[in-house]
Amino acid sequence: MSSKMGIAVFFFFILVVKSAASENFTYNGFRSANLILDGIADITSSGVLELTHRAKINQGHGWHPDPMTFKNSNGTVISFSTTFVFAIVSPYPNLTGHGIALVVAPQRGLPGSLPTQYLGLFNESNNGNSTNHVFAVELDTVQGDQFKDINDNHVGIDINSLFSNISASAAYHANVNGVDELKNLTLTSGLAMQLWVDYDGNEKVINVTLAPIKVPKPQKPLLSLKYDLSSVLNESMYVGFSSSTGSVPSSHFVLGWSFSMGGPAPPLSLSMLPGIPRLFPKELPKFVTIGLPILFSFMFVLVISSFYYAMLRKRKYEELLEDWESDYGPHRFKYKDLYIATRGFRDEELLGAGGFGSVYRGVLPDTKMEVAVKRVSHESKQGIREFISEIVSIGRLRHRNLVTLLGYCRRKRELLLVYDFMPNGSLDKHIHNVPGVALNWKQRFHVIKGVASGLLYLHEEWEQVVIHRDIKASNVMLDSEFNGRLGDFGLARLYDHGTDPQTTHIVGTIGYLAPEQYRVGKATTWADVFAFGAFVLEVACGRRPIEPQAQHSDIYLVDRVFSCWKRGNIAEAVDPHLGNDYVAEEMELVLKLGLICSNVEPSMRPSMRQIGQYLKGEAPLPEILSPAAGNALSFEHHVNIALDDDEDDDEEDDSEGLLSDQSTNTSASGTRPSVAESVLSKSLILL
Ligand SMILES: *[C@@H]1O[C@H](CO)[C@@H](O)[C@H](O)[C@H]1NC(C)=O
Ligand SMILES: *[C@@H]1O[C@H](CO)[C@@H](O)[C@H](O)[C@H]1NC(C)=O
Ligand SMILES: *[C@@H]1O[C@H](CO)[C@@H](O)[C@H](O)[C@H]1NC(C)=O
Ligand SMILES: *[C@@H]1O[C@H](CO)[C@@H](O)[C@H](O)[C@H]1NC(C)=O
Ligand SMILES: *[C@@H]1O[C@H](CO)[C@@H](O)[C@H](O)[C@H]1NC(C)=O
Ligand SMILES: *[C@@H]1O[C@H](CO)[C@@H](O)[C@H](O)[C@H]1NC(C)=O
Ligand SMILES: *[C@@H]1O[C@H](CO)[C@@H](O)[C@H](O)[C@H]1NC(C)=O
Ligand SMILES: *[C@@H]1O[C@H](CO)[C@@H](O)[C@H](O)[C@H]1NC(C)=O
Ligand SMILES: *[C@@H]1O[C@H](CO)[C@@H](O)[C@H](O)[C@H]1NC(C)=O
């Protein structure tokens, strides 16, 4: 019996303890709270109850997990008191929605509730129905005409309905020097505020009080409604919060909450509450708010200017590249590389300027290889294709006595040819206009043999016959070991291609041009041999083929050598700079070879193969036949015409180079205008 009593007492005790323990609660932050959430509600890691956060047209609820007993045994609602700290934050100023409500409801949820103006409390069909048994205090930030809201910033008491039984604009009564003063508040200010809801079960009065955070609870409530909740509330009820958003993804936060049944709500310890979460993860440091805009505008300027620079650059380094050139890819150089190599084609890098253009020394940026870059201006689009194909095929020529053409680049009105760099420059610089003996006979003879070997390769040993067209001392380059290397071959063709066949261009240099070229205008290997003869005499005699200042009989080198030979003293023609410092047999061989090559009759000239044999002493030199004299005469006849325009035959200064449509009719023999004259007067290219 006593044990039964004991068990009953025990259960009673448990009930009381449980009841007492669950009817009062205080949450200073919700980290350790066991709230029941629904909708989009969440609790942040810092313990903030986020009823809504960055979500449009949505709702969220948070409930204290345990039910509360709101009624006495005689069915009247007990006094209760609750307070909470909240904040409403919107990403846009003055634009928010819709609000928060403290809710007392029969269930841990509000079935069928809608977001937006329904605040997550009701829907259109159950709004205002007394079977709801819902008591709420709303903090409404949108004026809904549908529910006769007073404004978009109000506090209201809602009983089963969104039509507030009483409401007031958000404000609080402040006691200023004993005088009551109503101070407006803006619910959507983003600042934390505190709300108290007190129900006096004896007086049947509901008081609602609002204040900014850290302002003590005002004496006078904002709302006070005499209303008996007994008909509204059931015995067992749940307390919680509801919130909804509309078209603006506002955030509705609750930072702390306390509740007491039968007495005033325990005060919140404000210092323990979590902070209001930022809409952006972290407060941006000054670097971001001030530094970054500056940085960005700086970068913007940088991007714009570099874009502009790139445009300029593009124009600066612009090249012409057509589809057909894709086959020649390996032979193409980038203009930019050549520009950098020659340091922007600076004057200091200028090696020389000839008829076809200027030659610059350069160091290729990638390989650090020394090159010579020849800048040739060309206007005509015609023939450039054939020429490039020829250039590329010429680029495949490899011989120790040829200057290697490494490749090309093409721009508007400009062609750039890239050659191996020849450290010792061109041969003519070592023969003409130099004090003392720049080049001794041994070296000169070596160069002559080298050039002959290179020319033999072009004429007979390569897969196709290549006619050089412009053999002369200034086109013979000297490498580091003073080997003679023929350069510039084929270049003359550029001006030959695509031109009107009616006006035949003669390509080459006066003094080296074979007489038949004036008539036929066609380049042949024999013409090359003729030019080689002139070159050989030039090297041996140390003077150019034509020297206008000389005595009349001496103007033409070939005439002079011929007459010396006739007189039986060919050595008289030898370069005086050499003195006696030469091998007489070799000298005689070279001079006679020069005369033989200068034969007027092309077929009488030896081939390059024969010339090679003579120079090596493998075959005896043929006799110099009488036509050599005639040769000299006709040579004089042909060449005299152009003398006035070519008095100073110094190619390095001849930047013009192209003589076109100039009447140069000052023939020395002058009596009969020959075919040669008329052709010559049409157009003539000098190098
Ligand atoms: C609940 O709070 C009220 C008022 O703060 C107090 O009178 C009452 O004793 C509390 N109950 C318990 C069980 O702590
Ligand atoms: C109901 O009971 C409480 C005590 O439990 C008492 O204070 C109150 O006056 C009663 N109300 C009525 C209407 O009897
Ligand atoms: C926002 O509200 C403030 C006062 O609450 C007002 O001064 C301001 O003009 C409003 N701005 C807009 C864009 O409505
Ligand atoms: C409104 O909510 C009630 C429950 O409270 C539900 O039965 C009803 O279907 C809902 N009506 C609409 C229109 O959602
Ligand atoms: C209120 O709701 C109940 C059930 O939820 C329903 O039967 C009743 O018709 C509703 N009353 C009104 C006025 O809509
Ligand atoms: C107050 O609430 C009650 C109960 O829902 C309702 O009948 C009444 O019309 C409301 N009063 C006002 C002024 O809205
Ligand atoms: C406070 O707000 C109300 C309602 O918006 C307004 O009528 C009143 O002028 C405001 N008072 C002050 C001091 O701003
Ligand atoms: C409600 O407010 C009135 C003053 O408006 C006050 O007299 C009363 O004590 C308050 N009741 C509660 C429960 O706070
Ligand atoms: C609340 O009480 C009413 C009667 O007062 C009852 O009809 C209703 O079912 C109760 N609601 C709940 C959820 O218990």
UniProtKB/TrEMBL annotation:
It comes from the Eukaryota. Residues 660-672 have a biased composition (Polar residues). One of its GO terms (cellular component) is membrane. Residues 645-656 have a biased composition (Acidic residues). Its EC number is 2.7.11.1. It is found in: Membrane. SMART domains: S_TKc (SM00220). Pfam families: Lectin_legB, Pkinase. It is a single-pass type I membrane protein. The keyword Signal applies. This is non-specific serine/threonine protein kinase.
